[in-house]
Amino acid sequence: MSLSLQEMESRIVRYGDLQPCRTAFIDAHTPGSDQKENFTIIGGGVSESADQHVHITDTPGFNIGAAGQPPKCRNSLHSHRTAEVFFVLKGRWRFFWGRWGNAGEVVLEEGDIFNIPTGIFRGFENIGTDYGMIMAILGGDDAGGGVIWAPQVIEDARDHGLVLGENGKLYDSKKGQALPEGVKPMPLLTDEELKAFPEPTARDVVPHYVARYWDLMAMAATEPAKVIGENGVLRDKPGFEVELLTRGSIPADPYATDRHEVLMVMRGHWTLRWDGGQKVLAPGDTCAVPPGLRHALAPSMTGEASLYRVRSTGDPAGATWQG
User: Fold this and answer.
1) What is the topology classification, in CATH, of domain 213-312?
2) Which end of the chain has less neighbouring CB within 10 Å, N or C?
3) Domain ranges in the chain?
4) What digits encode the pLDDT tens for the residues 122-137?
5) What are the alphabetically sorted keywords of the record (predicted)?
């Protein structure tokens, strides 16, 4: 199998070319959340807005996205039915969870990765001093069928002109939009339904769902560090596996796999070579390598070099929280 330079470039989403959507979710007008930007890199993601740009539409069994936010901007409490994994590309972030966001929290630094348990309400905010970016891996081709919002998020959004229809689409009264005939507003979760959402503490979550970048860098000194997967530091099977690679652990010889592989550069510049050419990947770039393509990676410069490698697996993209 071979790819031309043009074909490979079409499978690379450059950090500098990312196109944001500022109206992706129901809290787009809510004060405190109205400056966030959502990016859909691979797959349809979970955006509720027709304005969302999708860079690569084909899904490899999972979705890749990102969120960019200025300091003090937060993403409102929501839940997913399948995996939502973040690693911090830039900045310092606080993740919090629970019905009201006060069941537990953890602060992540650059490179740290968080496999957020399914079925819990979660949110996050940039607590750094500059614009921050977190990269996301979402389980399943359809990313779990959308977002489940905490009731107060829907109520707050309605007060600021945004209504979510039961069809999962947003309607903005500030633009003169209204729910189409026959479409009802998304119903609020009842008190009985809310009881099904766990309220784990930080002690329940952090040791089993968070991996620190510098711990992984030490593990990846001579071989790839298995982060998420059957033998990973975080032992979930969410439909994909994640490894951290460094200059000391990248295979020297070209290799191929029968699975989809996505390369997400954390630090340094990496040269990707294959039968057909070579390209340089920079921090924040995302590359979708097709199954069967023999390829090799090598850092292009001296200094710190790391990337997250995500591969599809045969596991169903189901729940990860075991309780």
Assistant:
1) Jelly Rolls (2.60.120)
2) C
3) 15-210, 213-312
4) 999 999 999 999 999 9
5) Metal-binding
